Amino acid sequence: MATAPHLIAPLPLISTEVAAWVESVSALTRPRAVHWCDGSQAEVRELTARLVRERELHQLNAEEFPGCYLYRSDPNDVARVEHVTYVCTRSQEDAGPNNHWMAPAEAHDKMRALFSGCMRERTLYVIPYCMGPLDSPYARCGVEITDSPYVVLNMAIMTRSGRAALERIAREGKFVRGLHSTGELDPARRFIMHFPEELGIESFGSGYGGNALLGKKCHALRIASWQARQEGWLAEHMLIVGLTNPQGETHYLAAAFPSACGKTNLAMLIPPQSMPGWKVETVGDDIAWLHPGPDGRLWAVNPEAGYFGVVPGTNRDTNRNAFDMIRRDTLFTNVALTADDEPWWEGRKKFTPVLDWKGQPYDPKNGPAAHPNSRFTVAARNNPIYSPRADDPRGVPISALIFGGRRREVAPLVYEARNWQHGVLVGASVASETTAAAVGQAGVVRRDPMAMLPFCGYNFADYWRHWLEVGAKLTRAPKIYHVNWFRRDAQGRFLWPGYGENLRVLAWMLDRCTVGAGATETPIGSLPRPADLNMNGLDVTSEALAALFSVDRTLWRQEVAEIGDYFSRYGARLPAELLQELAVTQKLLG
Ligand code: SAT
Ligand code: MN
Fold first, then answer.
1. Residues 442, 448, 454, 459, CA torsion sign
2. 423 located within any domain
3. What domain range is 34 assigned to?
4. How, if at all, do strands 69-71 and 85-87 pair?
5. Cα(336)–Cα(368) distance, rounded to whole angstroms?
6. Candidates 201, 221, 237, 259: which one to mutate for ligand 1, based on the most atoms within 8 Å of Cβ?
7. 429 and 548 within one domain
8. Is residue 63 part of a domain?
9. What is the percentage of the chain residues whose pLDDT exceeds 70?
10. Count of Cβ atoms closer than 10 Å to residue 193 Cβ
11. What tens digit of pLDDT does each residue of 468-498 get?
């Protein structure tokens, strides 16, 4: 077997498994060179400079946006591709009705043919990475092999990558193998395959986000959810945020929402002026690994080290923290450009775009200037309210778990589950309108249990059973809530202002968990009455409040029937507890 020349010598302390795997991949893909990423600043600087020279990256206005670059992806490669994302378990039942499935041998054959010789004129990059603090027992490592320098730059921001991760792998022996090539970016030759039983990922034909940054959705959710089930923890699509009340007590919440429903904004929330004394700190904005602790509480770590957030809508009024965060050392993908080389997006108040996200002269007739799924990649440490606890190897204790979706009607602003078991039902029945984060029509309501529909690496029925089992281990389980920031009136206007005002709802939850704030019992759970929430300075009409705090029994009876239909897809594997809880709700609805 011929081996490609190494551009730089392999790092010390490299495990033989990693070396052998890199060798076999390079024999298959035939790269021009192999580069082992050491994760240093110098490496990132050199690669960035090269990509600017090669016009792959565009340097943005260095005075206004120092250290910021624009990358334009192929116009047919701008979002996750759920229809060609597969979970390849030996038994189809293990993947479940929630996943596309292919037999492992067939998938490996298909991918081998695609990967064969695919890196001929390219460099193969080896990226050792660690998801979670390097010294945390909860962290898990992987190695991504890719031929995309853009992926290298993103992984350097999004994960703890390079030398230290490689050393941890050498000590532990175990790592997730992620093989990625952009191929020819041909949508017909694009597949994202997961082999949870082998801790392997193979991704071909896309260079974008969750299809290509394999540490993120592929590893930290699909593969990790499988590992978590075996090891007794949960890998969830959740932000983690710390709230300190005016009395100085800090509590941590974890919240699951589908992609592009405001997780980053909630994690970086700015308290409204009428709520002085509150402090918010971000632990994570997208993924939480949750472990039952020896004290009977649930502990959370954020496996990531950066944010891959939605750009449009970000401005000083909606989220000043996010706006300040992305003014330096940020990699922008698919935003528009102003005449002064500043990045521009819908919702950016100043200036106008001259070039759209495809690099064409901007013409509103061709749609938005920035792609609706345009993204920023930025180090978590750039966040002005980054929590120092984000690097704590023990994680943070969680007081409340929140599920939410984007729903015009039905779901009230907030309600509290009766108990853990009911909370699992509430999470399992989340529904949400689709967004631009995945290819397909936006705005269609679909069930998205725990906001994990595209990300759970195994059968949802087994996953809900696992949720029930984890809950049974917790003597101090968090309370579980459902929220909906996206209710609209008959004219389509949002009823709730959202953003910083969401703190009013979070504060009520914390008061429920501590001093026992007021609520009223309803068939779907406990709802605050408007008077139970801090309403100081809130500008919402009483009609809007009435709608936000009401449970329409007719709509909810229909909702319960739809949830029952949805669950029937899971057949005998569905935990009976969920049907029992659904029956309780149905009975209470009368
Ligand atoms: O493309 S990503 O999966 O990284 C972002 C998202 O869809 O949440
Ligand atoms: Mn996400």
1. negative
2. yes
3. 11-53+81-231
4. unpaired
5. 9
6. 259
7. yes
8. no
9. 98
10. 23
11. 999 999 999 999 999 999 999 999 999 999 9
